[in-house]
């Protein structure tokens, strides 16, 4: 009987182990930012399930503030649907501070470069579009390793950038268009002014010579 009880206990332990397979190391806000390739706040606009190991899900975010990475207005992030595999369940319509990394986790879905997990430090935050302020986190089903949103986290995030809108490009210094618009370039103007001064000097010299000859006569 004791042997049977021990065997049953070992089976139960073996069956329950996967539910607690995800274990995360302590993560400070500064380390969370350092380890991530993209850090942003954004709202989940779409969720789709993919077939494959770990039943990955792909989340589409509409970003409003970019703390690290390219200032894109839209991000797609993959995460496992299984919490035992450290998958993070983002809710459609929810706004989050997202820490995402480029690497093997994101490659489980073709065309998705970024991934995020329970160990990344994601924080559910209040709806909005402005930079995070202390106290902006909202209650969630699981705690964040990098949260809560306090002065330390805000300082570690730094000053955010606004995402680039669709069709918008970074400002680039444009060359002067005066020559194309008016047909007269600055070089021609400068050259003409120099020629005029030379002609004026020549006329002045000729006039002085004539006066000198007139006085001698």
From TrEMBL:
It comes from the Bacteria. Residues 1-21 form the signal peptide. The chain crosses the membrane at residues 185-208. InterPro entries: TIMP-like_OB-fold (IPR008993). Keywords: Membrane, Signal, Transmembrane, Transmembrane helix. This is Tissue inhibitor of metalloproteinase. The lineage of its organism: Bacteria, Bacillati, Actinomycetota, Actinomycetes, Streptosporangiales.
